[in-house]
Amino acid sequence: ASLTFAVIVKGKLWGLIACHHGGGPFVVPRPVRSECWTIAQAFNSRLSEMLREERERRSAVLADTQDKLLGLLGEDARPNQLARGLDLLCSVVECNGVVLVEKEGCIYKSGTAPSDAVIRNIWTHCAHETERAGVYAIDSIS
């Protein structure tokens, strides 16, 4: 026998609370089912609150990081000024590495990044596609 309650967050199934009885058939009394339902609802509420708090915390961190990155640019923005913030950018995007390439060819890296030769090949390809299409967006460089 088993008793299962859905954990619902934002109207979607997030998980299950499952109770199993291995000793043969067993009918769970209605008061026990009602109490389990109440506990599951309380868990749903608390989980939703925790996830909301985490989203708010993440939004505040992103806004702070954006302010710091914009502060690095200043009025006379130069790529080498933004390069000082690559670690910040890497932490926000949650990646292993980030690369900034100046139009003149200077390469700034933070974390794990391809070799300069590979970066220049990617730069050339992206520059060509951008000239052709105006905007060029990809989800992978491999």
Describe it for me?
- This protein has helices at residues 30-73, 79-83, 86-93, 116-133, and strands at 2-9, 12-20, 97-101, 107-111.
- The chain is α+β, with helices and mostly antiparallel strands and 142 residues long.
- The two termini are 50 Å apart.
- The mean pLDDT is 86.
Which features does this protein show?
142 residues; alpha+beta; two-stranded antiparallel ribbon; elongated; two-stranded antiparallel sheet
Topology:
Elements lengths: L1 E8 L2 E9 L9 H44 L5 H5 L2 H8 L3 E5 L5 E5 L4 H18 L9
Antiparallel strand pairs: 1-2, 3-4
Q: What sort of overall outline do the alpha carbons produce when their principal axes are compared? A: elongated
Strand arrangement, major sheet: 1-2
Pattern of helices and strands: EEHHHEEH
Q: What is the CA-based Rg, rounded?
A: 26 Å
Offer a concise description of the structure.
The protein has 142 residues and is an alpha+beta fold. The chain is 53% helix and 19% strand.
